[in-house]
Amino acid sequence: EGEGGGVQASISPLALAPQLALSGLAWCASTIAYYGIVLWPISLGDGLRLQTTLGALIELPVYVAVPLLSRRLGPRITWVIFLAFAAAVWSSLAVIGGGGAAGTAMLLAARLAGTGATTICYVASNDAFPTAARGFGVAVASCCGRVGSVLAPLIVNLMPEEGGSRMAALATLAGGGALAAFGLSRAASEAS
Q1: What is the pLDDT of residue 46?
Q2: Fewest beta carbons less than 10 Å away: which of 3, 79, 151, 187?
Q3: CA–CA separation, 36 and 157 (whole Å)
């Protein structure tokens, strides 16, 4: 179709607004969940190389699980599960703290959840937009994800830690992202 007409011109920007908002929030929450844990001060061993290697080994099973879960449950539900799991883990950490064996195990679980959320967001948000607007929709959502990667270090490094407030903030954001991802399907079906 030529310029100024066809399928792209038939999609109202207002019709895309719900998907853009929900998808953007879920992307932002996903990157905050991921970078929040990657930047969290956790000691997994002596030396940066060992910590980086252990962090990578924690993530590898998720890269196998995401396509399997996505095929079985669908991308949107897989995204919701990982974000909800991240919210649950950060909520638990806000209560018990990140110290000791239990805290370390919870921090590792948060790394799994954040990795899954940032891995599936591409596929899940792709499905939320009509074909003619898909590139635009995913690009806007991805930009919101970049905002999340800017906010994560501010939350982890600059927010005061009083009574688990940083962990509670990460839990709240991940929970909001799970709700946004869950609402995505409804918004997409109304706009199509």
Answers
A1: 64
A2: 3
A3: 9
And the tokens for 43?
């000691």
When pLDDT is cut at 50, 70 and 90, the band that residue 134 belongs to is confident
**Could you tell me the pTM of the whole model?**
0.84
Round to whole Å and give the CA distance between 188 and 133: 11
Which amino acid is present at 155?
A: I
- With a CB cutoff of 8 Å and minimum separation 6, the contacts of 152 are 31, 32, 34, 35, 36, 39
Measure Cα distances from 94 to 5, 87, 181 in Å.
53, 10, 23
Query: What whole-number distance in Å separates Cα of residue 24 and Cα of residue 177?
Result: 9
Closest-CA residue to 188 (of 71, 76, 60): 76
Distance of alpha carbon 182 from alpha carbon 77, whole angstroms: 7
Cα 191 to the chain's mean position, in Å?
23
CB 49 within 8 A of CB 137: no
CA-to-CA distance for 136 and 16, rounded, in angstroms?
10
Lowest mean pLDDT among 56-70, 97-111, 116-130: 97-111
Contact present, 187 and 128 (Cβ < 8 Å):
yes
**Average confidence (pLDDT) over 30-39:** 88
Report which of 157, 154, 117 is spatially closest to residue 34, judged by C-alpha positions: 117
